[in-house]
Amino acid sequence: MSALSTMPMRLVGDRFELVPAQSAFGCLLRLTRLNQLNSADFRSFFGLYVRRDDDLHHVLATSPSRRQAMAAALKLELPNTWDPAIWKPYREHQVPSAVTTPLRYCVACIRLGYHCHVHQLPWISHCPWHGVNLRTNCPRCDGSLAMTSGAGRKLLTCSCGMDLLNESAAARLSRPVEGAERYLDTYLTWAQTMRHCQILVGTPPEVPSSHALSQLVQLPATLRRPESAPSPTPARAYQRELPSERLSPAEDARRMMGLRDAVPRMLHLPRFMENGCASVVREIALTLPPGSLSPRERTFFLGMVAEENEEPLRPQASAVVCSLPPLAMGDQRFLNLQSVHPVCARFLVHLEDAFAIDVPGLAAGLRKQTLGLLRRVQCDVLCRNYSEGLRAILARYVPQLYAGHKRRLQLTVPLALARLDGNPCVWVAFASMSTYEDANDLLTASAGLKWTQPRGK
Ligand SMILES: [Zn+2]
Ligand SMILES: [Zn+2]
């Protein structure tokens, strides 16, 4: 970053070489605090038009035009490190953009007026050079820090009196923090390399949760701090492809097209998904409380040999329950997609598209390998969401399933990180579903669960 030599007036704290890869918010913070600027100065000094309640970190992290305006006002060449995208070790496919997390900081760095995007990354929990835990709120009272121009107090102060910044220490800063430059160089080179081969695949409008991202991204040993414990629930890693005898590439692709309908209703199950779906149905039927299914429903779930000694609690079969297991027509299987949330169906399509995206340097032999890997992940994700959907719908008909098993009725949304290089791997994490945007049977069923008391209570 060049010094502000062409500015008519020098500002205290404008030697940005002392704060390597400082974020745009970090620059604003440093100059505002060290020069006692107030919100009325934001326009003249930073070219920023902001509302009094705009979170300044959020504004600068999500708006390229505001970053551009600020760089122009400061007579800087737009620093590439202001762009959150260059900190991501992946490209994004079907991930909502302009998403940011609340300001995260290192107490030792922020004391000197230094904030860097590396502190925002969900897969980094400790300041890479100080080793201290990164935080979001006031370290004394956990209250909110002043992040807006209209807060009525200095930026990054708390109503309890805590001030994260030490103005004199920040002004006296004479060289970059030990180890920061080396780490940032290594990190940014690694992230750039990974962007060539890693793709994050999501399902808008679901915003990837920080927790899921921290499970997915694997830092190399050279960039990990000893303090940061590995995630207690790491994402599931897929490296082995499905055996080729279970795949019929052209026919599988044709059947998977069924998921691309505007409202997918029925999926002609590709062979590679048949066993998985049958196991889901069987496992659920066998773990239901005895007598939960009527004799006819049991036949649909478990086949012709479905005998049970218990007196059925529900002698009458429900047409909905009977339609949940895959429908057999000869040796073909058809899955009624009412029990698979549309978000999952779309994710399977997005994943397929992400694999089709040209990855530079990926050899032809590897494409065959990645197809087997793609199909394995699709099969597993479908089975998991099918299982959740089955339970959500069944809970309406089999209240015993609801009692004592609330957690099982949670619907989840998948997020995947695919590394498509010479050693392909896909990591998949699941987060609770937060957005329902498609009205369908499953949605009604799962929404109803929140308030419907099981019968018999
Ligand atoms: Zn630090
Ligand atoms: Zn406080």
Condensed summary:
This protein has 2 domains: 16-182, no CATH class; 236-449, no CATH class. The chain contains 16 helices and 8 strands.
Q: How would you describe this structure in keywords?
A:
457 residues; alpha+beta; 2 domains; five-stranded mixed β-sheet; three-stranded antiparallel β-sheet; 37% helix; elongated; binds zinc ion; TniQ protein
Q: What report would you give on this structure?
A:
37% of the residues lie in helices and 8% in strands. It has 457 residues and is an alpha+beta fold. The chain has two domains: 16-182, no CATH class; 236-449, no CATH class. The protein starts with 23 loop residues before the first helix and ends in an 8-residue tail after the last helix. The model is unreliable at 1-7, 437-441 and 445-457 (pLDDT under 50). Residues 138, 140-141, 143, 158, 160, 162 line the site of one zinc ion. One zinc ion (ZN) is lined by residues 138, 140-141, 143, 158, 160, 162.
List the SSEs and their pairings.
Layout: H1 24-34, H2 41-46, H3 56-62, H4 64-73, E1 91-93, H5 107-111, H6 167-172, H7 180-197, E2 198-201, H8 210-216, E3 236-238, H9 249-256, E4 266-268, H10 271-287, H11 295-302, H12 319-322, E5 327-329, E6 332-336, H13 342-356, H14 364-397, H15 399-402, E7 412-419, E8 425-432, H16 441-449
Parallel strand pairs: 1-2
Antiparallel strand pairs: 2-7, 3-8, 4-6, 5-6, 7-8
Helix pairs in contact: 10-14, 13-14, 14-16
The structure holds zinc ion (2 copies).
Residues 138, 140-141, 143, 158, 160, 162 line the site of one zinc ion (ZN).
Organism: Pseudoxanthomonas kaohsiungensis
Protein name: TniQ protein
Region (Disordered): 221-246
